[in-house]
Amino acid sequence: MSEAATLGEGALSAEALTAANVHPETGLATDYLNHFNEVVMLLEMLPDMPDFAEEVLAWEPVPYEEHFERTNYVGKETVIAAYAAVDHTLKAHLETIVAAVNDEMREAQSKVQAGDFAGASAMAGSEIESLLAAARAAVQGRIEGEGIDDSAAAQAAADALFD
Predict the structure, then answer these.
(1) Does 17 reside within a domain?
(2) Domains in the chain, number
(3) Cα separation of 161 and 96, whole Å?
(4) Alpha-carbon distance 136 to 95, whole Å?
(5) How many CB atoms lie within 10 A of CB 155?
(6) DSSP assigned state of 125
(7) Cα 23 from chain centroid (whole Å)
(8) At what angle do helices 129-139 and 151-162 cross, to 10 degrees?
(9) Do the domain assignments include residue 143?
(10) Which residue segment(s) compose the domain that 80 sits in?
(11) Predicted local confidence at residue 156, as pLDDT
């Protein structure tokens, strides 16, 4: 597939995108968020299951395309090609949210490193989950976070401007 592919056409037809679990209108796949969901689940269980600390500390940020390149995900070529065709504004919005999630995950990992499992777990259930809700909304094409609290993503975007 060429980088000039257009969502809704040819190899990126709505049918092909749907078959690859890609939102046919946005070109984004929620499967990418599993990279975060799994570690959030571990963080939330950490106060009761401290053995998960090692797995939490081993977690690393992975960019969207690399996430799919590393997996045996059926249709990963379609997912990666669709990402190249995603609307620039929507992609920038998602990437801003992902950057904020990565920052919060690093902060949670610092808490885990310091033995503050309750603090890391609380972050997972509040700050990180709010950002992931905004990311899920972005995959569905909602940049403003219609119907959800997108304030954490908005604050993260504002903070990123001043870093």
Answers:
(1) yes
(2) 1
(3) 10
(4) 12
(5) 14
(6) I
(7) 14
(8) 100
(9) yes
(10) 10-162
(11) 47
> Strand (E) positions, the chain?
none
Asked whether the beta carbons of 61 and 102 are under 8 A apart, the reply is: yes
pTM above 0.70, yes or no: yes
Which residues in the chain show pLDDT less than 70?
1-4, 144-163
Is 153 a domain residue?
yes
Distance of CA 6 to the CA centre of its chain: 23
C-alpha to C-alpha distances, 119 to 16, 23, 135, nearest whole angstrom: 43, 35, 23
Residue with tokens 């993260």: 156
Q: What would the two tokens of residue 142 be? A: 């909602």
**Residue listed under structure tokens 């257009």:** 6
Among 118, 82, 73, residue whose Cα is nearest residue 3: 82
Please identify which residue in the block is written with the tokens 């049918």: 15
Amino acid at 17: L
Residue 5: predicted pLDDT: 83
